[in-house]
Here is the input.
Amino acid sequence: MSALIKEFLAYLAVERGLAGNTLESYGRDLRQFLEFIQECKGIAPEEATQATVVSYLAELRLRGRAPATVSRTLAALKSFYQYLVREHGLTRDPTSNLESPRQEKRLPRVLTVQEVTALLNAPVPRDAAGIRDKAMLELLYATGIRVSELVNLKIEDVNLTLGYIRCFGKGSKERIVPLGRIAAECTERYIRDGRSKLSKHDSGSWLFLNQHGHRLTRQGFWKILKKYAAQIGIKKEITPHTLRHSFATHLLERGADLRSVQEMLGHADISTTQIYTHLTKGKLKEVYNKTHPRA
Here is the structure.
């Protein structure tokens, strides 16, 4: 069965172009489901029924798994069983009549412009790590790219002369994002004065490196971000996506059109970008209440 999961994940990567993080999550979801039905039910995957799948999803909820995790698990199972029916002659799909639960869209937490400014000014660029951290934070807020896209940047993906970066988002889709002057200057200084000190013989062309000369990981960046947030006294819960959310919200607050923000964020569907309009509408109401004589 392990070989079959690998075959299925290879199919998703090649035929459907799913991103590495999604493939990793799907693989983990499927392995955990197989463990459940084998240990708790004593059955093979082809013997699973709709009731089996429903009981597993209920078990995930009892374990306190987030609704998004349960929904993703069901999506993985539906895709897997459809593959087994199509490619391996499975006669019955236990997920065929199951629908993914509707998820409530939560408004993303964002920082104010003042908080972002304090965060970007927190790293002291006196050594290679400080120069790197300053460049990373400036670049992340300037472009709104995902943290996974940030740590996967290579030197050749950054064009400081023309002021843009090239990154590969979900499904390995390439997009070009403008790079502001300050972020370009900080990145140029990092490449010149910081990266050269962090680089080792096996560093390759990864842009952002850790202290060992290897590509910085998402977890490594998160630790760096939390350190600076604590340093300047930000009390809000902050995640690697916080600067991305702040980037989108601040652009819309200052008059950027939704389609342009969608393009920069790399959203396939504009409905994903529209969640930020809820935040800007709240800002408009606040301004109205403060300034209208009859408010």
About this structure: The beta strands are 158-159, 164-168, 174-178. The two ends are 65 Å apart (CA to CA). The domain at 113-289 is CATH 1.10.443.10 (hpI Integrase; Chain A).
